[in-house]
Amino acid sequence: MLKRLDKIRFRGQKRDEFLDLAESPNASDSECNDDLLMKPRVSLKDAEELRDPAGPGSISMAAAIQDYQRTESDRLNEVKGHLEIALLEKHFLQEELRKLREETNVETLKQELEKERSKRVDLEQKMNEILKTRLEDSPPPPPKAHGPTVNGTGEKQKESLSSKLWKWLYERFGVYIEDFRFQPEENTVETEEPLSAKRLTENMRRLKRGAKPVTNFMRNLSALSSWHSVYTSAIAFIIYMNAVWHGWAIPMFLFLAILRLSLNYLIAKGWRIQWSIVPEVSEPMEPPKEDLTVSEKFQLVLDVAQKAQNLFGKMSDVLEKIKNLFMWVQPEITQKLYIGLWMAFIASCLLPYKLLGFIIGLYAGIKFFIIDFLFKSCPKLRDKYDTPYIIWKNLPTDPQLKERNSATLNRRPVVARGSLGAGVPSGIGREEESGRAYSTKRGPFHEVFNLSENERPLPVCENGWRCCLINRDRKMPTDYIRNGVLYVTENYLCFESSSSRSTSSKKNKVIKLQDITDIQKYKVLSVLPGSGMGISIATPSTQKPLVFGAMIHRDEAFDAIFSQYTKIIGRHIAVCGGKSFK
Fold first, then answer.
1. Mind telling me which residue stretches traverse the membrane in this protein (predicted)?
2. Are 530 and 299 in contact (CB under 8 A)?
3. What is this structure's pTM?
4. What does the DSSP assignment read for 288-334?
5. Which residues in the chain show pLDDT less than 70?
6. How far apart are CA 206 and CA 368, in angstroms?
7. What's the pLDDT tens digit per position in 486-534?
8. Measured in whole angstroms, how far is the alpha carbon of residue 111 from the centre of its chain?
9. CA-CA distance, 86 to 93, in Å (whole number)?
């Protein structure tokens, strides 16, 4: 568009001679170029006449002519700019008009209206045809002893009555018949809202408010089961067992639901009724901020992402455990469920329903009020005898299954053909065997870092933490920052660089925990909100502390490293103190 506008030129010398922009004809490029070529020649001749001392006119006249030409060129440039703006506005208005026409879809609405009209006409024709065929198929009435005029009038009256009846039926039930017409479903695509910090906070508050009644109900049930209020739990236990004994358990629950709805109605009308076993803690409501800075928005997104990650993780664990329970992933666990279902099926077939309901209600009351209270008060007892808790705790999730499979593959010994008959030495324990079998992506762990075979990552960091090593003593960009994985063993802190091509590379970093002089959390960029995503470690061999940055699980890694570091330092101090005492 801009290239076409640059080709537009104007002819003429005076501003009054220009045509109106709406009525001016389009000039060709050749004409514009000719005019542009003619202009400088005329100006050169005028300049020669002004320079010639013998020529007509004076110096003042020449200056006036030059000023006049300059003002004319400025006017031409101004008109040219206005024309470009007008053409651009016209182009944009045409685009908007085209979009509006596409959005309105007037033609599609007209087509749908015509289809509905044609459907209505077809329906009327079908109804008329049905009425005609039924009237033709109906048997003629028997002749009567009266005259022919009487028979003719009787037939006409019957035809009029039947037509009126069918017309009334059509007017009465035609609309309902039309509702049963099969039509293809319309696929409606929901429009997704753009990401907004204000909308994000509002949705999080709505979710919190919506889940509050459910969380309060579950908290009250837990308090009732754990005998938080002894009198309330005792009264509830007596009422429930009495209802079960007399067979009123289901009516009792229905009455409680009606009572809850009645209380909600009174609360909606303005009554202040608060009944809860556990006192509700009123959380302070933060006023919504309209204008958020970039750092506040970034921190808000991080908080929401963390909450969503934890929530989705818990939901995924529950769903995966249920799936694995029914898919026989753990056969010994699913076998218990299988036997229990068979026993319940046989009991439902043999026992009467009244006795079966009494047994189920009695067991549920004793378990909820007594057994669960004992298990919550005595965790060791729960770990031994609470069958549902043990089953749920031992059910694996999909990530746990992947870790188990990878661990079994890594622990599988690699035996050469010549050593098939050789057994494993008896002096090697399980820990040494698992440490020897553990390997990283580059190879065995002890070979990658040139360590002893006993050194292996702690259970917290079996897969390592993804991070980048920032060595501020180096000046080269390739040595300054390295991406890789960080591991912690019993005595060492190991960093495996992702750019290392061999198993034991110089790019890998091994730090002895005993040599660390200082360890603390570090914030690489002070502009970003929060406490940062890095760990700084100072050693005597480095002038500036090494920084392991861009760690998603920074707090977990820091706790693991710091706890192991304190163990090593405490052990070293104890050894040194024992030697000095001797």
1. 221-241, 247-267
2. yes
3. 0.46
4. PPSS--HHHHHHHHHHHHHHHHHHHHHHHHHHHHHHHHHTTSSHHHH
5. 1-70, 103-104, 134-158, 186, 189, 277-292, 294, 409-442, 474-479, 500-505, 525-531, 577-582
6. 32
7. 999 989 999 988 876 555 567 788 999 988 988 988 877 665 655 678 8
8. 40
9. 10
